[in-house]
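Operator note (shift B, R.M.): manual run for Glycerol-3-phosphate dehydrogenase subunit C requested after the automated queue skipped it. Running by hand, logging everything below so the morning shift can see what happened. Input copied straight from the record, untouched. If output looks odd, do not overwrite the archive copy; leave it for review.
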Amino acid sequence: MNGMEFAGHELARASLDHCVKCTVCETQCPVAAVTPLFSGPKFVGPQAERYRNGESVDHSLDYCSSCGICTLSCPQGVQIAELNSQARAVMKADHMPVRDRLIGQTTLMGKVMTPFAPIANAALGNKPIRTVVEKVVGVHRDAPMPPAQHQSFEGWLKKRTAPTAKPTRGPLVFFHGCAGGYFEVETSKRAVEVLEYLGYEVIVPKQGCCGLAQQSNGLFDSATASVLKLCDQLRSAGQGLTIISASGSCTGMLKHEAHEIMGVTDDRLADVAVRTRDIMEFLLELHEAGELPTDFRRIDMTVPYHAPCQLKSQGIGMPAIEVLRLIPGLTVVESGRACCGIAGTYGLKKEKYEVAQAVGRPLFDMVRQTNPEFALCDTETCRWQIRKGTGAQVEHPIWMVHKAYGLSD
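Run finished. Output pasted below as returned.
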């Protein structure tokens, strides 16, 4: 990307003049509500965009978390968050911090940490080491970090015993994402086991990163290369096959961010995006078609559920709640809170950590009041943030479906 041009500029700018300065986005912004360091989505978005000529007029723009709530709440359909993300990429083009390049290398981190999981986890829990990392790299010493796993998802696939039951419904492609491949391995395993229980043949092609962390840090060139390479990998599994993912954030990259923010118009992305389903979205579609077995075991439990921002940006509602309410005895309480604060890599950065924690505090309080031991959320980084903020076990909703089908205790 030319540093003086906005990637996807025309897509978001087409909505610019629809802004009537109603300030709805300002009242809904979770970041502006907790810090004066951010001037607010309207000011740094459509208002400032009218005066930009290759540079941002307000560097508080970097405190936008890109949660997307402003776009979702705008009654005029202005793509505020998309404008902000594009402008930030231009603003940082000639002085991209080394840290922002490093934390976008999620697959590399997984590959490095997995073989040395005990050592990596000891380092993550060591305050002096984390303090040095904060000073040298810029990742806050208390930022939520995922524990390294002793086995990757790919490693589990290679060693597992193949299902004895023959598929009855045909093939699906499973997209696990970087976190699902290295850090949230159990979630990926349970997702595959549920799909196989339902009678599907699950194909898992070799796959890399979707580029989301790179995109959110303004590295549009590398993010574009990553997402298109991933599209090639997913397409290699077979034409026309539905692609299922238990990574809500990575699904969002394929279905929203790559096109709406970076302006990727490649036919490969369009093909993959239209075939990709969040796993809970897919299960709800099966239920609505009368094709989802509902012989669930009873689970007497009350669980708080938080719908992450990137799930909301896909416009699919909250399918997890509708599916989970089919389970006898299970009471699901939607958080009603706007954002957990982490926003991908935003809350990891030393200058933004306290802002992220302040944004997430109402959600943390809600979880503690509802069930201080267990909660549900669809995206990985949001789960890490909620775990850190509450001490609760926080898992993907597919965990409850897996248990209700009798596939786990």
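Quick read of the result: The domain at 9-92 is CATH 1.10.1060.10 (Fumarate Reductase Iron-sulfur Protein; Chain B, domain 2). Residues 1-7 have pLDDT under 50 and may be disordered.
Leaving this for review. - R.M.
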